[in-house]
Amino acid sequence: MSLGFVIGESKPTFVTALTSRALSVGEYIKISSDEGEILGLVEKSSVSSAAFTDVKNFDEASESTEIAELNKRDKTFTAHIGILGFLENLRRGQSIIPAIPPIPGTEITLPSKQDLEEIFSPEKEGWVSIGSLLRNKSIDAKVNLDKIVSRHLGILAMTGMGKSNLVSLVTKQISKLKGTVIIFDYHNDYTSLNIPRINVIDAKINPRLLDADQLSDVLEIRDSATVQQRVLRMAFSEQVKKTKEFWKKLENEIDFIINSDDNKLKEIRSSAYRVQDIIEESQKRFEDILDPDMGDPISFIKEGRANILNISELSEKQANVALAFYLQQLLKDRKDASIARHGKSKKERNYQFNSPIFVIIEEAHVFIPKDHDTSAKYWAAKIAREGRKFGLGLGIVSQRPRSVDLNVLSQMGSFAIMKIIQEDDQRQIASATESTSRELIAQLTSLNVGDAVLVGQWTNLPSLVHVDEVKEKIMGADQSAINAWAKADKMKEIAVESTQGLVQKDLLLD
């Protein structure tokens, strides 16, 4: 059945068509050509009416309504279509753009269900369903998990648009395959995720494993307090790291600075007193976070499971240090495993994980900011560049793409982009994703909760999908204040009635 015809100037990558009905953005169409059938995606759609052209007042609009109803030729449906490639090649996962653009007057039709299933729902190993095509609900939208581990993934959206649901869904699918996932959970959104093979870890920091600058951040010594930082560097020796009574030894080293007769050390005595106070306060404030006797934090991560690392109790600086440590150690472990696998190491086995790992960083704009350097950003950038060679994949999740470092963001090989309104965010996305057209970027403001534009290597073609809801995810959804207030008021009434009943019972007993 004919949908319309190509009109005007056509290009190998883009055509305009007049159609028999309004086509939806995200709808797929088929264009015939001498070289073969071509698949296209509707990126922009418009409707115009000749009767309403140059209408200037209400009466004219009312009259034009009657004219438009009588004239079947009044409405003009225009579709702007991005060409995705030859259908036959797309079935094999190859996107080949025609050298000759479609000729104006070429007929446009709908692709068959089989055409779309072969492209968007391939029956291949590593491909898993995450929802359905937004405009073709009967077609499963599948993604290639291999590509997100080897080429990384960015999930970008406003708050409440379904980022954490998609993270949960990807985690659930990898967990089914007994893969290893690590989510750095900054807001305690995933600790209640009720899926098989889950391992929840409350993040702690072993101060022995840090350097002086990292320990300074963990103890929350101010950036401007350079003398205090110097005192800590002097005290925090290798001997302190190795001693059994860590905190006591560290305090003794600072005592030595305070009580020294050295004139140079006398100049920093007041700062040493302050560092001593900070260490004492930190042992009390961060008792559940800082543990010099915990051993290696990496050992708590379980291979073949979904590991939720709860860092919600850490301050921003502490979380940054913890994240940097984990990223550094995970990259080292995967490098060691890769070297051992290729028989290039003469050392004994010194790695923990035997298979690839996918690491997800929530609130990426906090840890990978574009306007300043952090230790977590350094290691995330290193994994983005090198991780694919060693089986370490990176997923970054953010509601503020404009604040994420572009060098890291642009190295994400795949993206799920949900509703984004801010123009700065849209520009950052356009800079990071070469395969996302300006027309598709413009559609981000109109997406509903759970809708996403998928681009990159984890899908055969750019697609608009609706992501399945993960029923096992409990936390992270918006709370209803109205329901909570009503429930609290009801509980208060029950408490009052119960108290009155007890009082009356006491009076009767008296």
From TrEMBL:
Catalytic activities: ATP + H2O = ADP + phosphate + H(+); Couples ATP hydrolysis with the unwinding of duplex DNA by translocating in the 3'-5' direction
Recorded coiled-coil stretches: none
Pfam families per record: DUF87
Example GO molecular function: 5'-3' DNA helicase activity
Domain Helicase HerA central: 129-329
Organism field: Candidatus Nitrosopumilus sediminis
Listed InterPro entries: HerA-like, HerA_central, P-loop_NTPase
Record's protein name: Helicase HerA central domain-containing protein
The family this protein is said to belong to: Belongs to the HerA family.
